[in-house]
What does this fold into?
Amino acid sequence: MLRIAALAFAICLGLHGMAQSDEHPFIESFTLSVQEGRVLVQWTMKGGSTCDGSAVERSTDGETFVPVHSIEGLCGDPELAVPFSWADADPPELSTLYYRIVFASEGRSSVKNVRFEQLNRSELRLYPSPTDGLSTVLLRVPASAQVELRVLDSNGRVVFERLKQVGRSHQIDLTGFAAGAYAVIAIADGRRFDARLVKR
It folds into this structure.
């Protein structure tokens, strides 16, 4: 009786393990990576011979997907693994993005997600505003850009300053400062960025 129970448990465990593996049989690997201003979608097909009607789909909530790249013609090989890649050059900024590969009538891949913390349309984002003290300023500049950051009060006095900072994202701390509107000035990559920050 114990042997039967153990066998049943093993079968059940095996079926559970199969259910957890939801990758398409055509897919050998499927990865996402964030690059400068884009998301690179890479996958390797280990089967199939046609891509007509296939597509890369993207979602911002993991539920509603829309096609962002179509794949036409012959692709893949019944015998050999074939790598593919596509760069999403216009991903929604400051979003968690979900991608999947759809094989026309042959089903779809698993869903992968990645966080895109860059600007590709806006020049500057400042959040939160209003703030109780801490805010983040995000600039549309190269990751290697050197940044000068200043915050001025309504009288034009510098109340916060960070020089020789590197990167796109920088934190402003107005904890303890009076409530009101402040001017934020960032100089980076040969450009000046201006914003308004409200302190509660």
